[in-house]
Amino acid sequence: MSSGQWWRDGVIYQIYVRSFQDSNGDGIGDLPGVIRRLDYLQWLGVDAIWLSPITVSPDADYGYDVADYCNVQPAFGDLGDVDRLIREAAERGIRVILDIVPNHSSDRHPWFTDARSGRGARHRDWYVWADPKADGGYPNNWVSAFGGPAWTRDEHTGQYYLHNFLAQQPDFNWWNSEVADAFDEIYRFWFDRGVAGFRIDVAHGIVKDRELRDNPLATKDDPPDVRALGQRMVYNIDRPEVHDVLRHWRTLADRYQPPRILLGETYVIDIRTMGRFYGIGDELNLAFNFTFVHAPLQAAALAEVVAETELIIPEVGWPVWTVSNHDVSRVMSRWCEGDERKLRTALLSLLTLRGTPVLYYGDEIGMPDTPIRKAELRDPMGKRHWPAPRGRDPERTPMQWHNETGGGFTNAALEPWLPIGDTARNVEDQQADPGSILSFVRDLIALRRTSPDLQAGQYRQLTSPGDTWAWQRGDATVVAVNLSGRRLFVPDLAGRVLISTTRSRDGERLHDGIVLGPWEGAICFSASTSAPVR
Ligand code: NOJ
Questions:
Q1: 3-state DSSP call for residue 419?
Q2: Is 111:64 a contact under the CB 8 Å cutoff?
Q3: Sign of torsion, CA 512 504 322 451?
Q4: Cβ atoms 512, 492 nearer than 8 A
Q5: Domain extents in the chain
Q6: Against a cut of 0.90, is the pTM above it?
Q7: Which atom of ligand 1 is nearest to the CA of 61?
Q8: Residue 201 C-alpha to ligand 1 middle, in angstroms?
Q9: 457-525 adopts what CATH topology?
Q10: Which residue, 122, 236, 388, 510, is most buried by CB atoms nearer than 10 A?
């Protein structure tokens, strides 16, 4: 049986608004553009769209530096456009989820402008300030996630302020109850407008150690990203008190009818820590699982992440899966090296695991990362680390709607804000081709909708040979993927193939297993499955 909760049963689609659809020829995507594409999203079959930040921002970090939480970035439209989007999306059965950034604001937010005006300013304590060390040095050893010290000295007042990201993104002081009150109002402002929920930026990190203690240094046994930072982020993220804040927000969201959902960016390095963000069903509804995103496309590795996730997430919780987003290389490039066969196995897995899939715009047509030249860089990370390939522009380029000038994204005479990738890969052509990746994704989403097993059934890994991964969902649905370049036999499968990655196996009757070709996968339905459970 389906759970009856749309966000558990459904598919969420992430839209990077700047790159989805430009409606006014300025080379930047906008809200009227999203509205124009609602018919497409309905055709694709998604249940909700999550929009990357649409609020006012000087764009030091493209929307993740907010200067007004209750107004729309003028390049994207206005509040009337948000209302229209919510209304027109609802008419097509699609909910709208926004992105909220409670860890930091822009340094141009009036609260911070006031805070830095003097030590006694009204909003001074809304941010994290600290005196220099006796030698004038940084208050502690914390480093920014974007590189360099997490502190910037404010010459006017002689103190340092904290920023876990850019200097233009000062961190809030969540020990101050006025900050909490201000965010309650922001949530209510949008919930009252009919927003279905929020993706919460840095949901694990908003509370900082009250004593601002030094982080312990990394050791050679730490994971590579920790070693790269040189320290374990023990005191500047994931403090125990963050759970109190999340519980409070959950109460607030649950008061609405229907309850609003909280989807957290819980960028923690292990599944156990991620699992804590569900609380006892009283914190986040969904906590992103980055261990999955960063695992390799290998059967054993992915199966292990899923098995551990299944163990750790409390009974009252619900997993969420994604394979791409605006911060990581696209799945087509990262996992699949441009190989469509691999992409199909990845998308098949994404859409058939137990949990809510979040599909990143463009993945449904197999967009790869777009190469970006130095002069085209927009992302501050990209600029800072150039020529190291750490920037996030390649995964943020415009949606490829058709194969003519502007790619259907824009009719701007000038270049769009980021270059458009190879439009030979585009929505229009793939919509017309039943064998395309887009048709495959659409058919998978449609199948999920009619399959209680795929929506809500238990996940059980089945015994299968190395390099294959097979699992049962619910009573009668089995998924098997071959994540290798060899033909492999997965035994003990009987029934009918519902969808295969090649589409050439659809409808095939299985009696005693399936031979999967290289990078092939299939969903099989059997009224009586007897495959051995691992
Ligand atoms: C996570 C967001 O996804 C990323 O794009 C942003 O740069 C940081 N948080 C800072 O807000």
A1: coil
A2: no
A3: negative
A4: yes
A5: 6-105+188-202+241-446, 110-162, 457-525
A6: yes
A7: 7
A8: 6
A9: Immunoglobulin-like (2.60.40)
A10: 236
